[in-house]
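Project standup — Tuesday

K.O.: blocked on the structure for the chain from last sprint. Re-posting the sequence here as requested.
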Amino acid sequence: MTDNSCATNGTDCPEMDAIQRFFIRPFFLSLTIGIPFCIFKILFGISALRHLSPGGGILALLALAVTVWAFADLLMNTGRSLFDLLNSTAPFEFCTIAQVGRIFRMPLVFLAFDTLLTFAIICAMLWTGWIATLTPAESWLWYGATTMNLISLSLVSLYNEIRRGHT
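H.V.: unblocked you, prediction finished:
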């Protein structure tokens, strides 16, 4: 998510302006990427419980595991945001998979793997048709997460390209 030569809050990046530094702050990253990804995972877990486990069994356990994983990641992203708002460095990563990656000194590689899994979950929701079976409240959560994630990605890209053209 960030260039390793910069502090996580962008303070060690003199070539970046204030807006670019904001874009790499944990608060912004959690709000626009981490929390929406957690919502996708939670809704997938709930949908899997609804569709795959009428009699319980291993599929119900897997669906429950995805849901628990998603809520753990939601707590971690919320925690990262709070630490950032308090101008403190969090002692943990954005998600559980990246936290495991910290053991191997490769949290960003594991975070990228988490991103891949989340994109696979989004695709699974679309291709299974489960997206059409979300309740109205679940749909609004999905729409909000999608909007927050895609619009912020576009705004960051647009801003960086405009700035690159003026430097």
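K.O.: great, moving the ticket to review. The CA atoms of residues 52 and 139 lie 19 Å apart. The chain has a mean pLDDT of 92.
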